[in-house]
Amino acid sequence: MMTIKTVQATPFAGQKPGTSGLRKKTREFMQPGFLENFVQSIFAAIDGAEGKTFVLGGDGRFFNTDAIQTILKMAAANGAKRVIVGQGGLLSTPAASHLIRKYAADGGLILSASHNPGGIDADFGLKFNGANGGPAPEALTAKMLAHSQEISEYKIADVADIDLATCGTQDVAGMVVEVIDPVADYAMLMEDLFDFDAIRDMFEGGFRMRFDAMHAVTGPYAKTLLETRLGAPVGTVINGEPSPDFGKGHPDPNPVWAKTLMTEMMGDDAPDFGAASDGDGDRNLIVGKGLYVSPSDSLAVLAANAHLAPAYSNGIAGVARSMPTSSASDRVAEALRIASYETPTGWKFFGNLLDAGRVTICGEESAGTGSDHVREKDGLWAVLLWLNILAVRKQSVTEIMADHWQTYGRDYYSRHDYEALPSELATDLMEGLAARLADLSGQDFAGLTVESADSFAYHDPVDGSDSQNQGLRIFFKDGARIVFRLSGTGTEGATLRVYLQRFEAGTGALFDDPQEALAQVIQAAHDIARLERLGREGPDVRT
Ligand code: G6P
Ligand code: ZN
């Protein structure tokens, strides 16, 4: 006999969603009632689950299927009508966003801690996306937090575990559960957007590529798209089997964590094109033969060349970037005479601009790029758009970058991360710096003169909402910029991010090593923020 149980609940501290949903150590998520409380709080924030349709899936990390079982039983107990779930519990974040839109669902629950490692001693996460397919805006996540702090009970159906292995429809306590192929709808969308014939011809002509799925969710998507549909040789996709601990790796597609790929791409026998994606498939890394393309540059190149792909052949409406992302895309927007926007870090801030049709392409320095085809950043989308551009221009990545920098100039760019700092130390450093901001103008640091400094605030032009304290910006007289910001996605202590940027005109030195080209800016950052107080030899990550 099926019963709906109402279970007494006591609030947990720390259910405040961050940059991208609730992200915690896996063991914290596994505490009895922790996940349940948060799921009930999500339902409360959206005025109940009664009669609603949801999309559900995750990146396959440890605890993914257990969490899905719990969420399905809770959705049923809360009166949801239907849940569409990826087979085996898998759905990449962009694929989930697409399914929400395609099937006009009321929202989706996505299980992932993105690029953070997986495993019982690693990280787990849960976020809610709304009917537009995008991450819940701050007003909604605030409601989730508020409810989690006063929760007294949750509802769950007392039923056997649901079969996630077989595609098809089942009844769970009066709710329809539809298990679907996680790849099919997404692959169809990609075929609509890009010129698959041109890309297929390029592969047939001997074009070589390596895609590192980092043992995460994009493996099955990349194999279907690149190897099956586009005819790239089998073996083009490496680390293509999703595993609960991502092969004990760190599924963050940056030059540090995607070491295998980077080594191959910098070697003598490098393929023409290399790419990688993260745990849940929304980030991307792009690398040519011997040349890493920074995410900020990739955004600019994609914006400048998007019209070469069928979906964007009529041009793009505008470009948005997060504040710490370099200004490279701004200059492209200016040349194209289209709008450009600067938003706080976090894909959710692009949602309104995309919904309102003000922008078509968005991107972040944190390796996210995407367009209005979904409401998430999309790793494979970026890879396919690059492939489409390469197929049409018939040039190498290096030739395309050289041409781009000669036309627009180059923003030498790097981000230095100091991870797992004691929270108090990091907060103290930021507060100290914020207090000195007003006095910085006119001062010299490492030979650079500060022109202005502020704490970034964003006024959303669509819904009129305001977001304060989104990072400390310091602008220099010759166009260099430093941004200091605390990460909103970490699960251990605090991570300080230092974003460094310097502009070099198209007639200048365009192929220098970014760390060397930025040496003066890096020194200025140390002097301004007194980084020696962190007691570290250097940053943990340089992008
Ligand atoms: C996630 C979000 C991105 C954001 C990134 C970095 O991936 O989806 O939008 O840019 O985290 O956030 P953080 O707060 O760690 O710098
Ligand atoms: Zn991600």
UniProtKB/TrEMBL annotation:
One Gene Ontology term of the molecular function aspect: magnesium ion binding
Isomerase keyword on record: yes
Keywords from the UniProt entry: Isomerase, Magnesium, Metal-binding, Phosphoprotein
Residues covered by the Alpha-D-phosphohexomutase alpha/beta/alpha domain: 15-154, 190-287, 296-408
Region (Disordered): 1-23
Cofactor: Mg(2+)
Enzyme class, broadest EC rank: isomerase
Catalytic reaction annotation: alpha-D-glucose 1-phosphate = alpha-D-glucose 6-phosphate
Entry EC number(s): 5.4.2.2
Keyword Magnesium appears in the UniProt entry: yes
One Gene Ontology biological process: carbohydrate metabolic process
Family that this chain belongs to: Belongs to the phosphohexose mutase family.
Xref: NCBIfam families: PRK07564.1-1
Name of the featured protein: phosphoglucomutase (alpha-D-glucose-1,6-bisphosphate-dependent)
Originating organism: Cognatishimia maritima
Lineage per the UniProt record: Bacteria, Pseudomonadati, Pseudomonadota, Alphaproteobacteria, Rhodobacterales
